[in-house]
Every structure is written in structure tokens, then in C-alpha cells.
User: Which sequence fits this backbone?
């Protein structure tokens, strides 16, 4: 049998996880677990690079996010779950990589330029933040991961990772594979207001939201802007509520589509029904969340086991780095 390819992916624990994370990343992670050797990492050092004023929050979010991962079906019997800052080998490789990464590559990185422009609430004009992608390269290559499931926004970081790995290999000898990005096929889930679902826009439904909160949030969703009166026929394609039906209740989408077009259903009813669908959809996750939250020691021991496995793999790579560099 062929050896399974190795995957590494990560999320920054900067806040609660929401439906966008589930559809965009977590569901994908869950599916990959059988076909790949998977490592899933809470990137708390990366969170620190923008949230350094409140590191305790990062640690709280880390546990909370890992509880969400487990509740969504990430299985510690199949995959390795760990916290980045527990594996110091990342930093050692980060330093090697820092030496072979020209400043210009980092300064030109589109995500860097965008964040400097957009993220006005944080002081990120720092040495560390410029090096964000270099640490990400170390995260990936310290495990010699071959496949990296990420969202499209992360592609520039993947390109930098490949470039940095190549530079290292050319200079010292081949240690690192050329990792491939793996994009999710799922269409993007938009937020309540029709923009990208994001913590900073406050337009999300959290995996941990109560049925009441879900109902309130769904009520506030933007609909077809041309459907003003109850008797106006609607255009479902222009309505985000309908997009949610297609994603979470495809079996009911046809009916909603037809009813909306002939003004057979009103938006208030349509949303009330969607709130019920989402509440049911999240019920098993909510139940598991409650269980893990009541037993944080279980989660901690899963992370301790993951840390052990991750450090073992990282140490192997460190040894190879020592062989080719002599340092
Ligand atoms: N930069 C990623 C994000 O913001 C998180 C991340 C850190 C990551 N290290 C990684 C993702 C390594 C994939 C692989 O989502
Ligand atoms: Fe959207 Fe439903 Fe209203 Fe149609 S009836 S516009 S699908 S909320």
C-alpha cells in the first residue's frame, strides 16, 4: 500500500468559529482524515502577531476552537491536533527560513499589504508581522507536509512557502517537499449582510450560538432587495437566505425557490424556517460542544498527545536540517 500523503493545516485562534469556518475549512478537514495523514494546528503564534496585546484571550480561544474541531468530527484517533506554540522546532526552522527569505518577497506579499491597509484596529507595523508567511512556511515544512488545505486568501502564503523551501533546498540539500495547496470546492458562504462571513464584520453565525441567537440572526439577514412588499414576487438567486437553503437544506431549496418566485411564501416565514433548519443542523455539534466543555481535561489530553506526535515528527526534520547545514 502507498504511504498516505501528509497534510498540515492551521487556523488562528482569534475568536469563535462560525458557519463560514465549517463550510470553508472544517468539513474539508473532516473529509481528508481518511485519505491523508493529517496534522491540524491551532496557530496561536500567528494569532499573537496581531493580538499580542491580549495573549490570554488567544489561549482561551485555542481551547474553544479545538472543542469546535472535535465537535465537528475531527477525530484524534485519525488526526494529530496540536497547538503551534507547544512545538518550539517551528521557531528554529523559522530562523533558518528568515535567513534565506529576501525582504522584498515579504514586503510585496499581497496579504501583508492588504492587512496593513485594512487592519486599522491593530498595530501591526511590526517586525513579526512582516515575517508572518515565513513562520507559516516553517509550520508546513517542519512536518514536510505535501498537501496544505487552505482558502484562496492563503495562496500567496503557499507560494512563499514553496519559494522558501526551494531556496533552502538549493542552498543546503534537499530536505523539503514542494507542498501543494488544496482548495475547498464548496462555494463560499456569505455572512448575514451578504459580505464575506467574518469575525471582524460581526456578520456570522457561530457554531456555539443558541437556538434563540440563531433565530435572531437569521431574522436580520439581507434578502432580495427588490422584494419589498409581501406580494412582490422574489428572485431567489439574489437572496442570501436562499443560498443558505441550498447549502444546508438542498432538499427544500426547490420548493422555496418556487414559492418565492410566486410570492407564495413571505420572507419572515422563509427565515423562520431557515432558523429551524440551522438550529437542527447545529444541534449535534452543540451537544458535543457541551460534553467537551464539561470535560476540558479530555481536550487537554488530546492536545498533549498531539503535541508529542508533532514534536516527534518535527525533531526528525530538525535532524535532517542539521545534517545538511551542519548547524
Ligand atoms: N495563516 C493561516 C490563516 O490565517 C493560518 C495558518 C498558520 C496556516 N500556519 C498555517 C494555514 C499553516 C495552513 C498551514 O488562516
Ligand atoms: Fe429570500 Fe425567502 Fe424572501 Fe425569497 S422568500 S426573498 S428566498 S427570504
Assistant:
Amino acid at each position: 500500500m502507498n504511504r498516505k500523503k501528509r497534510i498540515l493545516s492551521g487556523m488562528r485562534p482569534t475568536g469563535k468559529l462560525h458557519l463560514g469556518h465549517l463550510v470553508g475549512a472544517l468539513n474539508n478537514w473532516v473529509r481528508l482524515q481518511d485519505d491523508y495523514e493529517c496534522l491540524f494546528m491551532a496557530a496561536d503564534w500567528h494569532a499573537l502577531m496581531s493580538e499580542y496585546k491580549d495573549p490570554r484571550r488567544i489561549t482561551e480561544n485555542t481551547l474553544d476552537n479545538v472543542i469546535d474541531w472535535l465537535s465537528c468530527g475531527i477525530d484524534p484517533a485519525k488526526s494529530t491536533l496540536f497547538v503551534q506554540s507547544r512545538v518550539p522546532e517551528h521557531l528554529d526552522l523559522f530562523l533558518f527560513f528568515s535567513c534565506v527569505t529576501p525582504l522584498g518577497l515579504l514586503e510585496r506579499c499581497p496579504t501583508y499589504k492588504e492587512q496593513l491597509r485594512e487592519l486599522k484596529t491593530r498595530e501591526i507595523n511590526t517586525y513579526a508581522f512582516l515575517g508572518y508567511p515565513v513562520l507559516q512556511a516553517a509550520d508546513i515544512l517542519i512536518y514536510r507536509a505535501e498537501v496544505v488545505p487552505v482558502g484562496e486568501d492563503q495562496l500567496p502564503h503557499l507560494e512563499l512557502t514553496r519559494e522558501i523551501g526551494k531556496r533552502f533546498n538549493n542552498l543546503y540539500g534537499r530536505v523539503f517537499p514542494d507542498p501543494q495547496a488544496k482548495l475547498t470546492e464548496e462555494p463560499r458562504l456569505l455572512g448575514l449582510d451578504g459580505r464575506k462571513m467574518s469575525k471582524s464584520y460581526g456578520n456570522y453565525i457561530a457554531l456555539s450560538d443558541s437556538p434563540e441567537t440563531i433565530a435572531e440572526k437569521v431574522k436580520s439577514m439581507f434578502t432580495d432587495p427588490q422584494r419589498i412588499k409581501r406580494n412582490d414576487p422574489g428572485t431567489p438567486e439574489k437572496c442570501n437566505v436562499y443560498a443558505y437553503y441550498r447549502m444546508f437544506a438542498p432538499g427544500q431549496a426547490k420548493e422555496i425557490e418556487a414559492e418565492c418566485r410566486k410570492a407564495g411564501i413571505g420572507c419572515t416565514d422563509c427565515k423562520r424556517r431557515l432558523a429551524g433548519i440551522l438550529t437542527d443542523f447545529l444541534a449535534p455539534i452543540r451537544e458535543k460542544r457541551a460534553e467537551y466543555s464539561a470535560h476540558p481535561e479530555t481536550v487537554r489530553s488530546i492536545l498533549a498527545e498531539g503535541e508529542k506526535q508533532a514534536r516527534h515528527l518535527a525533531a526528525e526534520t530538525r535532524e535532517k536540517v542539521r545534517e545538511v547545514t551542519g548547524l
The domain at 211-289 is CATH 1.10.240.10 (Tyrosyl-Transfer RNA Synthetase). The longest strand covers residues 6-11. Residues 121 and 207 are 25 Å apart (CA to CA). The mean pLDDT is 96.
